[in-house]
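Sync notes, pocket subgroup
Present: LS, DG
LS reminded everyone that the earlier model was apo-only. Rerun requested with NAP included. Inputs:
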Amino acid sequence: MKLLVLGAAGQIGHELCRRVWPADYRIAGVDRAEVDITRQEAVADALRQERPDIVINAAAYTAVDRAESEPDVAWAVNAAGPGHLAVRPPVFRWSTSRPITCSTAAKKRPIARMIR
Ligand SMILES: NC(=O)c1ccc[n+]([C@@H]2O[C@H](COP(=O)([O-])OP(=O)(O)OC[C@H]3O[C@@H](n4cnc5c(N)ncnc54)[C@H](OP(=O)(O)O)[C@@H]3O)[C@@H](O)[C@H]2O)c1
Protein backbone atom coordinates (compact mmCIF):
# COMPACT_ATOMS: atom_id res chain seq x y z
CA MET A 1 0.00 0.00 0.00
CA LYS A 2 1.52 3.30 -1.02
CA LEU A 3 0.62 6.63 0.56
CA LEU A 4 1.40 9.99 -0.97
CA VAL A 5 1.41 12.89 1.49
CA LEU A 6 1.15 16.39 0.02
CA GLY A 7 2.30 19.28 2.20
CA ALA A 8 4.81 16.97 3.89
CA ALA A 9 6.79 19.85 5.42
CA GLY A 10 3.84 21.12 7.44
CA GLN A 11 2.87 20.02 10.94
CA ILE A 12 0.33 17.40 9.92
CA GLY A 13 2.25 16.25 6.84
CA HIS A 14 5.46 15.85 8.81
CA GLU A 15 3.72 13.81 11.50
CA LEU A 16 2.15 11.56 8.90
CA CYS A 17 5.52 10.91 7.25
CA ARG A 18 7.41 10.19 10.45
CA ARG A 19 4.89 7.94 12.16
CA VAL A 20 5.38 4.19 12.11
CA TRP A 21 3.17 2.57 9.51
CA PRO A 22 2.46 -1.13 9.03
CA ALA A 23 5.30 -2.96 7.28
CA ASP A 24 3.48 -3.18 3.96
CA TYR A 25 2.94 0.61 3.78
CA ARG A 26 5.30 2.84 1.84
CA ILE A 27 5.14 6.60 2.39
CA ALA A 28 6.13 9.27 -0.10
CA GLY A 29 6.01 12.82 1.20
CA VAL A 30 6.31 15.88 -1.01
CA ASP A 31 6.55 19.50 0.07
CA ARG A 32 5.47 22.63 -1.77
CA ALA A 33 8.77 22.92 -3.65
CA GLU A 34 8.18 19.45 -5.13
CA VAL A 35 4.43 19.67 -5.72
CA ASP A 36 2.55 22.95 -5.62
CA ILE A 37 -1.05 21.88 -5.10
CA THR A 38 -2.32 24.99 -6.87
CA ARG A 39 -0.81 23.64 -10.11
CA GLN A 40 -3.06 20.95 -11.50
CA GLU A 41 -0.41 19.57 -13.82
CA ALA A 42 2.10 19.30 -10.97
CA VAL A 43 -0.43 17.32 -8.94
CA ALA A 44 -1.24 15.07 -11.91
CA ASP A 45 2.47 14.49 -12.56
CA ALA A 46 3.01 13.46 -8.92
CA LEU A 47 0.10 11.01 -9.09
CA ARG A 48 1.41 9.52 -12.33
CA GLN A 49 4.92 9.23 -10.96
CA GLU A 50 4.17 7.92 -7.47
CA ARG A 51 1.04 5.88 -8.31
CA PRO A 52 -0.24 5.97 -4.73
CA ASP A 53 -3.09 3.89 -3.39
CA ILE A 54 -4.00 6.65 -0.94
CA VAL A 55 -3.35 10.38 -1.12
CA ILE A 56 -3.47 12.52 1.99
CA ASN A 57 -3.46 16.23 1.33
CA ALA A 58 -1.91 18.13 4.23
CA ALA A 59 -1.03 21.15 2.07
CA ALA A 60 -3.00 24.14 3.24
CA TYR A 61 -3.15 27.89 3.46
CA THR A 62 -3.18 28.28 7.25
CA ALA A 63 -2.48 32.02 7.62
CA VAL A 64 -6.03 32.63 8.76
CA ASP A 65 -5.37 36.28 9.65
CA ARG A 66 -4.23 37.03 6.09
CA ALA A 67 -6.90 35.05 4.27
CA GLU A 68 -9.21 38.04 3.83
CA SER A 69 -6.46 40.13 2.27
CA GLU A 70 -5.22 37.22 0.11
CA PRO A 71 -8.47 35.52 -0.89
CA ASP A 72 -7.14 34.32 -4.24
CA VAL A 73 -4.20 32.51 -2.66
CA ALA A 74 -6.35 31.04 0.11
CA TRP A 75 -8.86 29.80 -2.48
CA ALA A 76 -6.20 28.37 -4.76
CA VAL A 77 -4.60 26.33 -1.98
CA ASN A 78 -7.60 25.31 0.13
CA ALA A 79 -10.35 24.94 -2.48
CA ALA A 80 -8.96 24.55 -5.99
CA GLY A 81 -5.93 22.54 -4.80
CA PRO A 82 -7.88 19.66 -3.24
CA GLY A 83 -10.08 19.74 -6.34
CA HIS A 84 -7.05 18.87 -8.46
CA LEU A 85 -6.85 15.57 -6.59
CA ALA A 86 -10.23 14.67 -7.99
CA VAL A 87 -8.79 14.73 -11.53
CA ARG A 88 -7.28 11.28 -11.61
CA PRO A 89 -4.83 10.10 -14.20
CA PRO A 90 -5.98 6.83 -15.75
CA VAL A 91 -3.01 4.94 -14.30
CA PHE A 92 -4.29 5.55 -10.79
CA ARG A 93 -5.83 2.59 -8.96
CA TRP A 94 -8.57 4.51 -7.20
CA SER A 95 -11.56 2.35 -7.88
CA THR A 96 -12.62 2.22 -4.24
CA SER A 97 -10.45 4.68 -2.31
CA ARG A 98 -10.73 8.46 -2.19
CA PRO A 99 -8.21 11.23 -1.59
CA ILE A 100 -8.19 12.50 1.98
CA THR A 101 -7.75 16.19 2.58
CA CYS A 102 -7.10 17.84 5.93
CA SER A 103 -9.38 20.75 6.64
CA THR A 104 -10.32 22.69 9.74
CA ALA A 105 -9.45 21.71 13.29
CA ALA A 106 -13.08 20.69 13.77
CA LYS A 107 -12.64 17.17 12.42
CA LYS A 108 -14.79 14.55 14.09
CA ARG A 109 -12.47 11.61 13.42
CA PRO A 110 -8.66 11.63 13.63
CA ILE A 111 -6.84 11.01 10.33
CA ALA A 112 -5.14 7.87 11.65
CA ARG A 113 -8.51 6.28 12.33
CA MET A 114 -9.85 7.22 8.91
CA ILE A 115 -7.12 5.45 6.99
CA ARG A 116 -6.99 2.22 8.99
N1 LIG B 1 -2.04 21.20 13.03
C1 LIG B 1 -3.17 20.75 13.58
O1 LIG B 1 -3.27 20.46 14.78
C2 LIG B 1 -4.41 20.58 12.72
C3 LIG B 1 -5.55 20.02 13.30
C4 LIG B 1 -6.67 19.82 12.51
C5 LIG B 1 -6.67 20.18 11.18
N2 LIG B 1 -5.57 20.74 10.64
C6 LIG B 1 -5.62 21.09 9.24
O2 LIG B 1 -4.62 20.37 8.55
C7 LIG B 1 -4.13 21.16 7.48
C8 LIG B 1 -2.63 21.31 7.63
O3 LIG B 1 -2.36 21.95 8.87
P1 LIG B 1 -0.89 22.14 9.45
O4 LIG B 1 -1.02 22.50 10.85
O5 LIG B 1 -0.06 20.96 9.06
O6 LIG B 1 -0.45 23.44 8.63
P2 LIG B 1 1.04 23.95 8.32
O7 LIG B 1 1.98 23.48 9.36
O8 LIG B 1 0.88 25.41 8.06
O9 LIG B 1 1.40 23.20 6.98
C9 LIG B 1 0.79 23.50 5.77
C10 LIG B 1 1.73 23.06 4.69
O10 LIG B 1 1.10 23.32 3.44
C11 LIG B 1 2.12 23.78 2.58
N3 LIG B 1 1.58 24.54 1.47
C12 LIG B 1 1.08 25.80 1.44
N4 LIG B 1 0.73 26.14 0.20
C13 LIG B 1 1.02 25.08 -0.59
C14 LIG B 1 0.90 24.83 -1.97
N5 LIG B 1 0.39 25.75 -2.81
N6 LIG B 1 1.27 23.62 -2.44
C15 LIG B 1 1.79 22.68 -1.62
N7 LIG B 1 1.94 22.85 -0.28
C16 LIG B 1 1.56 24.06 0.22
C17 LIG B 1 2.99 24.67 3.45
O11 LIG B 1 4.22 24.85 2.80
P3 LIG B 1 5.14 26.11 3.16
O12 LIG B 1 5.79 25.78 4.46
O13 LIG B 1 6.08 26.17 2.01
O14 LIG B 1 4.24 27.30 3.25
C18 LIG B 1 3.07 23.82 4.70
O15 LIG B 1 4.14 22.91 4.63
C19 LIG B 1 -4.90 22.50 7.55
O16 LIG B 1 -6.00 22.44 6.68
C20 LIG B 1 -5.35 22.55 8.98
O17 LIG B 1 -6.53 23.34 9.14
C21 LIG B 1 -4.43 20.93 11.38
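DG: The pocket of NAP is lined by residues 7, 9-13, 31-32, 36-38, 58-62, 77, 102-105, 107 (CB under 6 Å).
LS: Residues 39 and 81 are 7 Å apart (CA to CA).
Action: DG to write up.
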